[in-house]
Fold this protein.
Amino acid sequence: VQLQASGGGLVQAEGSLRLSCAASGRAFSWYAMAWFRQALGKEREFVAGITQSGRSTYYADSVKGRFTISRDNAENRVYLQMNSLNPEDTAVYYCAAVPTSSIFTTPERYDLWGQGTQVTVSS
């Protein structure tokens, strides 16, 4: 499986963006998926994760209630709907995959990574 993230851009505070991560190859439904982000000069941090079936999700406290992760196993895609964005959300966003039923919050647990997409929120 290879991952390609898209959908980033420049948005004003309180605006919305929808990120998409397309997976190529077979067995996408075997993978738990997650979004991470990395701001300039900071470590990569967990944003949201979703189990193989999509029935369970988990969010970082900083985005809970504003971001929604979802997946479409028929289309081999995972999404991150981001609402009420603020400048602190500015970062490069990465999608990641691991062939397990669990959602991990540390980047070291993920086997596959997309190339990242820049999200910039202006005040």
